[in-house]
Amino acid sequence: MKIREAFLIVTGCNHSARPRRNASDRVSGGIDDLWMNPAGELLIVDYKATAKDAEVTLDAQWQDGYKRQVEIYQWLFRRNDFKVAKTTYFVYGNGKADRKAFDGKWEFDVTVIPYEGNDDWVEPVIFKAHQCLSGEAIPAADPNCDYCRYIVSVNDTVKSKA
After folding, report:
1. pLDDT tens per residue, the chain (162 residues)?
2. Helical (H) or strand (E) element with 78
């Protein structure tokens, strides 16, 4: 695959790859932007927006998903034989909520946050997910999973009303 095709990805096309083992499933994603450093390595860039008084960081637990997202993108590009830098960038726009009027335009303070990704976890997790989804048994709910706890709570509520 040539670098020209990588730039097509930037314009909104999805990029996909197959894991190295014989899984038939494809993993794909659409990146926000792609930069190149002086060493010729591709830099995955993700744009985020918020509006809050606090400084923009990637320190909250719920932002771990953002980090995993760019690590999957790094894995996808590496699996397609691109030279990818370890560092990714989050371009974070923080909306200025102190303006007197909206007047049809949004104003942001922009912060560029570097993040060193590690995609070593991606392929094993893909295979574990594939095995789970291909299996006959529904896995047990994980007590540490917010979604699992929500589903258990909904089911308990429905049963109590029946």
Report:
1. 444 444 444 434 444 555 555 545 677 778 899 999 999 999 999 999 988 888 899 998 889 999 999 999 999 899 888 999 999 999 999 988 777 777 777 889 999 999 999 999 998 998 888 888 888 888 888 888 888 889 889 989 999 988
2. helix 64-79
Integer Cα distance of 64 and 71 in angstroms:
11
DSSP string, 8-19: HHHTT--EEE--
3-class DSSP assignment, residue 136:
coil
Q: What are phi and psi of 20, to 5 degrees?
A: -65, -30
Q: Where are the domains of the chain?
A: 3-161
| 3-class DSSP assignment, residue 119 | coil
- What gap in Å lies between CA 84 and CA 122, rounded to an integer? 15
Give the H or E element holding residue 112.
strand 108-116
Distance CA 14, CA 63 (A): 22
Q: Report the predicted TM-score, pTM, of the whole model to 2 decimal places.
A: 0.75
> What's the first-to-final CA gap in the chain, in angstroms?
57
Nearest to 76 by CA among 40, 30, 21, 130: 30
